[in-house]
Amino acid sequence: MFGLSVEQQLLIFIYFNVIGLLTGLVFDFFKAFANVFRFSRRIIFLLDLFLCLLAAFIVYYELYLLNYGEARLFVFLALLIGLLFYYLVFSRFISRNLLEIFRTFKLFFCKIQKFFYTVQDFARRIKNYLYQRLLSSKDFKGKQ
Q1: Pick from 83, 23, 8: which is nearest to 59 by CA?
Q2: Which portions of the chain are predicted below pLDDT 70?
Q3: How far is residue 32 from each of residues 36, 37, 40, 52, measured CA to CA in Å?
Q4: pLDDT at position 20
Q5: HEC profile for the chain?
Q6: In the prediction, which pLDDT does 141 show?
Q7: 46 vs 36, 41, 64, CA distance in Å?
Q8: In sequence order, what DSSP letters do the residues of 76-111 get, joined into one string?
Q9: Angle formed by the axes of helices 41-67 and 6-37, nearest 10°
Q10: Are 90 and 18 in contact (CB under 8 A)?
Q11: With CB atoms 3.0 to 4.6 Å apart as the test, which of 73, 79, 88, 116 could cross-link to 20 if both were Cys?
């Protein structure tokens, strides 16, 4: 590279390894989220597209900041090595834990939603009861 020492190139290589690891983590996060919340295929396609565009933007932005925009083979190899390392070492453990976390959140929010529906139904029944009592009262009907 022009003007970059070997140490700087090594730091760039390590940095892009980390970006590859983080890209794998974000993809597993999205995959677990989509698996638990069951989105339609169209929405998953759009989210996949957004994820790929976001990853490409981040990679090229960091490439511009760190490497003066020079796309070298070792940068893309570092990304690939980071992704492969993530999927071989961390992916199974993290995917499993993310699935459990999202299932727990979904269960928690479903219980909260059920509670609010119960409260809403109870309030509606009280309102209807009071309305019926009001209609059946003699004062409301007028004097006969």
Answers
A1: 23
A2: 1-2, 138-144
A3: 6, 9, 14, 16
A4: 93
A5: CCCCCHHHHHHHHHHHHHHHHHHHHHHHHHHHHHHHHCCCHHHHHHHHHHHHHHHHHHHHHHHHHHHCCCCCHHHHHHHHHHHHHHHHHHHHHHHHHHHHHHHHHHHHHHHHHHHHHHHHHHHHHHHHHHHHHHHHCHHHHCCC
A6: 59
A7: 17, 9, 27
A8: HHHHHHHHHHIIIIIHHHHHHHHHHHHHHHHHHHHH
A9: 170
A10: no
A11: 79
> Residue 91: CA atoms inside 13 Å, Cβ hemisphere, count?
16
How far, CA to CA in Å, does 39 sit from each of 27, 44, 67, 122?
16, 6, 38, 32
- Nearest 5 degrees, angle CA 12-CA 86-CA 82? 20
pTM of the model: 0.75
CB 85 within 8 A of CB 20: yes
Q: What is the DSSP letter of 54?
A: H
Q: Read off the tokens for 53.
A: 């565009």
* pLDDT at residue 139, rounded to an integer: 63
CA torsion through residues 65, 71, 76, 77, sign: negative
